[in-house]
Amino acid sequence: MRYTVQAATAADVAHIANRMSENGDASSSAAVNHLLRSCAFSRQLWAARDLAGTPAALWGVVPAPGHPETGRLWMMLVESDERDRHDLADSSRLVVDEMLTEFGELENIVAADSSDAIEVLSRMGFHLGPPLPAQMDAPLQRRAWLEADETAFADLPRVLN
């Protein structure tokens, strides 16, 4: 694994936000604002750093509205090649295991046509449901979930530093 996973710092969040805003358009500004709100409301916030200490991913979890036992996992991966996605997905297993000590279930909603996101979630051990009924002007989505009593991570040591 080419990444270390630790509790995220403000510097990690700032680095990821700066990377997201590099193209400077309105959509990147909205995405950065969404990231900052997600960080503010997260009960846990983790970062993956490469061997040089540069943040490459953030993960957070917020309680699902009306279902405090369910955590809504969110993640921001800034690396883009396939090997990086695989390494970050493998690193995510440590984060997910830690999140499942606080929440009975983790879930995520992903665009049904987002093969990269589906691959990362599958590699992390999440189950993927069928496409959800379409909403007006919204792409088809799929629910991904993982329950705390599943043994997907039982063989991995819990090594978060």
Description:
This protein is an alpha+beta fold. The chain contains four helices and seven strands; from the N terminus they run E-H-H-E-E-E-H-E-H-E-E. The protein has helices at 10-20, 26-41, 82-99, 115-123; strands at residues 3-7, 44-50, 55-64, 67-77, 105-111, 127-131, 141-147. Strand 2 (44-50) and strand 3 (55-64) form a beta hairpin. The longest helix has 18 residues, at 82-99. It starts with a strand and ends in a 14-residue tail after the last strand.
Quick take:
With 161 residues, this protein is α+β, with helices and mostly antiparallel strands.
Contiguous low-pLDDT stretches (5 residues minimum) are 154-161
Mean pLDDT comes to: 85
The radius of gyration is 15 Å
Strand order of the largest sheet: 1-2-3-4-5-7-6
Order of helices and strands: EHHEEEHEHEE
Distance between the termini: 15 Å
Beta content: 25-35%
Alpha-beta classification: alpha+beta
Which outline best applies? globular
The tally of helices reads 4
Q: Indicate the percent of residues in helices.
A: 25-40%
Major sheet characteristics: 7 strands, mixed
Kindly state the number of beta strands: 7
